[in-house]
Amino acid sequence: MAKRFFSLVMIMMMAVMVTSAFADDCLNRGQLDEMYCDNDGDLCADAPTDESKFRDPSTLVFTYTPVEDPAVYQDAFSDFQRYLEKATGKRVIYYTVQSNAAEVEAMRSGRLHIAGFSTGPTGFAVNLAGFVPMAVKGYPDGFQGYNLIMVVRADSPYKSLKDLKGKVVAHTAASSNSGNLAPRALFPKLGLVPDKDYRVVYSGKHDQSIMGVLHGDYDAAPVASDVFTRMAEAGRIDSSKFRIIYRSAKFPTSAFGYAHDLKPELVQKIIGAFNTYRFTPEMQKTFKGADRFYPVTYMADWKVIRDIAESTGVYYNKAGLKKMAAKEAAKRAKKK
């Protein structure tokens, strides 16, 4: 009995020593899960310090953010998969995921090596799955995305956000990022608080907000820049009739990246493939004219997304992922 007790005590002491040693090695974890460390401070999981923990799989598993018809994107990425195979010297297979939460779990468990995550779920993938974003779809001069813009009539007296105090401003819908969540997250820091400094009314859609401003129904409206541009290009509005008094940093689209524990030499080959690949005409059509992967960093290019998440009560932790999974399950159930 005494020997068993002694052995148990020794095992517990060794476990504490190992845990302490691991904790000492990790000087900074930030908001990352306890599985990961961020000693370099870039907000993403560091590569393992122990080379024996590097992964160098013979087959790489790749996927893109889940959609209603996964086959569309599986076909769209087929040429890139072949390019990635040549660059890495490995077989690359496409793994279909049914939800954003499932995609995060697949990378966390090690079943997924390279992936494209939607803008919002990217934070969950970084914090909970060791995902390292490196690129988004883009063009020679920048990445594909859109801005939150505040539009007013060109003949109005409003020149800055603070000029809208006491006015009527059209938000689109409660769940809209650029039409509601982003203004509520970003404007207070600029001296304008929705519902307090101006009266919020919901128009329902971005184009309805824009037309409402044009017709004088609203004094201003926060809308997505790409919607405004498309309406102007289609001749639905004359852009000279409007003034843009605020433009946010660009919101990125889905992030492409890799698992943090892949072998460094393999990571460099993967990054090289993303940097040099050019989209086929079919891919350009599928992805609204984007012709390449444009390099980004999570720290710089996702800051505006993180700010919005923080101010709207979205936390990139296990509890937040559970909430997202529940919402996705509810949406799928409604469609059945």
Automatic annotation (TrEMBL):
GO terms for cellular component: ATP-binding cassette (ABC) transporter complex. The keyword Signal applies. Keywords: Signal. The keyword Cell membrane does not apply. This is Phosphonate transport system substrate-binding protein. It comes from the Bacteria. It comes from Desulfobaculum bizertense DSM 18034. Pfam families: Phosphonate-bd. Residues 1-23 form the signal peptide. Belongs to the phosphate/phosphite/phosphonate binding protein family. InterPro entries: PhnD (IPR005770). GO terms for biological process: transmembrane transport.
